[in-house]
Backbone:
């Protein structure tokens, strides 16, 4: 039940790369809005490259050099850059995006007060922006659990945008899964989670998530499929496979035999 | 995993049993090379990547993920490894044999 949850905890790391890919229609001055947007994308890319470079240097370094490199991580420098962009783009759709980047980079720089400040600014000024669909994925690590749950409810109630509502509903579902996986198995809770997934699949079938290439609905649908078809006691779904020699086959070709299916990779 | 699976496949070569790998390493050529190098004799479904059609439909997020099906295709065990896999497979083979015996008995 908690598989998707593990996937979601990886999301925070992807956030920066991804929020640059979400297109947001500029509101007031379109041209200036575009310029800010491009700046945010460029800065995001630059930061990712700086991190990659730092990691490579770190891996190649000896112990003494590593100690030095640990004091020269790129996060603090880029934190200031994203903060500056958020100020500069104030009032445009790029501002909340830059602020979400600030939250991420501040966490990476272990400067939580700045992450919290950026969060507060988004809540105060950009709660109805369509550009905050990454917020539910980032805020979990910034605010207390009760505050976080309140945020998810608030976004679903007050955001006029389906991408934001969908992100909040998706994370609410993830949180519910997390809770029952910590409490241990409970059939009633499992059924409630499945109902939530079905509702997500229906309500957000066409709403693209701000990461990957699936919609929230598709992600929930995949969960529903697993819960309904891949539990012990169900006949394994039949799906066509192509073997290493290019020959097609199905699991049902093996009726009459005991079968072990091993999803594996040699890596 | 691999050494155990090789032993299992060898031990049950004359039994109604099949181990099928669903591989996410790459295309058939790449997988064939790995099979040869690692001396893996059992059949593979080529899923190409960790986001392949099998892995995504079956919601696989971790590798290896194991499903054990009985002779009717019913999922009976999940994520059993090594001795647990042996036990699971042995149990299902016994069930199959018991059913065949029973069918023989009533068939007359």
Residues:
């Amino acid at each position: 039940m908690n598989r998707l949850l593990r996937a979601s905890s990886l999301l925070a790391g992807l956030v920066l790369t991804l929020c640059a890919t979400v297109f947001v229609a500029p509101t007031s001055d379109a041209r200036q809005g575009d310029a800010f947007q491009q700046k945010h994308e460029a800065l995001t890319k630059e930061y990712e490259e700086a991190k990659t470079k730092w990691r490579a240097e770190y891996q190649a370094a000896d112990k003494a050099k590593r100690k030095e490199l640990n004091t020269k991580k790129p996060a603090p420098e880029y934190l200031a850059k994203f903060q500056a962009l958020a100020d500069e783009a104030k009032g445009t759709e790029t501002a909340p995006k830059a602020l979400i980047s600030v939250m991420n980079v501040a966490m990476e720089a272990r400067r939580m007060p700045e992450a919290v400040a950026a969060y507060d600014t988004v809540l105060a000024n950009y709660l109805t922006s369509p550009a905050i669909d990454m917020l539910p994925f980032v805020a979990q690590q910034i605010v207390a659990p009760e505050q976080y749950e309140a945020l998810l409810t608030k976004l679903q109630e007050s955001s006029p945008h389906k991408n934001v509502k969908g992100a909040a509903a998706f994370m609410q579902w993830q949180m519910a899964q997390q809770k029952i996986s910590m409490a241990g198995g409970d059939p009633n809770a499992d059924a409630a989670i499945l109902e939530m997934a079905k509702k997500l699949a229906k309500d957000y079938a066409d709403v693209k998530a701000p990461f990957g290439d699936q919609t929230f609905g598709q992600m929930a649908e995949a969960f529903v499929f697993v819960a309904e078809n891949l539990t012990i006691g169900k006949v394994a779904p039949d799906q066509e496979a192509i073997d290493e020699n290019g020959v097609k086959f199905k699991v049902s070709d093996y009726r009459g035999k005991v079968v072990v299916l091993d999803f594996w990779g040699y890596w | 995993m691999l050494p155990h699976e090789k032993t299992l496949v060898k031990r049950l070569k004359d039994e109604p049993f099949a181990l099928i790998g669903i591989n996410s390493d790459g295309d058939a050529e790449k997988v064939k090379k790995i099979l040869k190098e690692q001396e893996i004799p059992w059949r593979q479904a080529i899923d190409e990547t960790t986001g392949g059609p099998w892995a995504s439909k079956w919601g696989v997020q971790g590798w290896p993920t194991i499903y054990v099906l009985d002779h009717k295709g019913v999922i009976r065990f999940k994520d059993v490894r090594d001795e647990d896999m042996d036990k699971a497979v042995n149990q299902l083979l016994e069930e199959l044999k018991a059913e065949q015996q029973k069918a023989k008995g009533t068939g007359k």
Q: What stands out?
A: The radius of gyration of chain B is 16 Å.
